[in-house]
Amino acid sequence: MYCSRKGEHVAIIGKSGSGKSTLIKLMAGILIPTEGKILLSGIDLKKIELSSLYKSIGFVMQDSLLFNDTIEENLRYGKEEASMEEIYNACHKAGIYDDIKKMPEGLKTVIGERGEKLSGGQRQRLILARLFLQDKEILVIDEGTSGLDQKTENIVFDSLRAIQKDKTVIVVTHKEESLVWFDKIIKINE
Prior knowledge:
The protein is an alpha/beta fold.
């Protein structure tokens, strides 16, 4: 059993199929354990209302959803009442601000179904910007930086470390070069 502390940055690593995403889904209450317990602040996850849980945890999953709408509306899905300053700050933190600035319609650019008009890296950074905008206590990122080059991933991790010091960050990654960013590393063996 491992317990993460507030402000700690934890990486979960392991081979494909070892259960990393399943562990994240269990921690998020998406899957319910058939035996044993998952504790959040010492409380059995089964005893916590999901709506309460989701108020404190922000997720970027491997298959996070983007809508056939504008970049701005896709970001607002994370926080409807966000100010334009908050949106721009989140885009800077995720390293996508410059890309958006170069688009003819900027934040009003329609990205297509599941973000098909964006590159894979742009989709990931847009989803990460949505996560930054939510400003949750616990950030869970499941392979959310896998399509990013090392320079862009460094921007994202710099933001996570500098801006999210009071937040718990849990990241599933395959990239060993990324492990220097974390306080703790959990390796799942098959």
